[in-house]
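Entry under discussion copied across for reference:
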Amino acid sequence: MSEWNQNANGNYIYRISADDIMTVFKKKSGNGWSGVRDGEFLKGSYDTPQEAQKAMEEFVFEFNSSLAAPITQNTGWKASNKGGYYKVDDGGITSVKQASSGKWFIVSSIKGFIEGHWFNTAQEAMTKADQL
């Protein structure tokens, strides 16, 4: 079904493409397994690496964002009370919100709605917003 391979560190790697990799790893606390892809982590922990691998596949390939951990503070982005994300910087407030279609979009307090930019994940929208 999948091509998970264990590396020398004991992590499990799934190579989607040359520069797109999912990783399942033992949590530092030693309490369970988690996963990460492109800076987005799984929420919670799993008893076995196989359970974490299955969750990562659902998260990435089936776009199940309910499995994602909240975006951490170190990115500057914070979860909003309405289900999106926002950040405050010298350019004002920038928000990333999800449309009823499931796609994500960007709204800036300075530039307004950023037209022509729709994203499959909140992370993709935040990455683009960071570049504006």
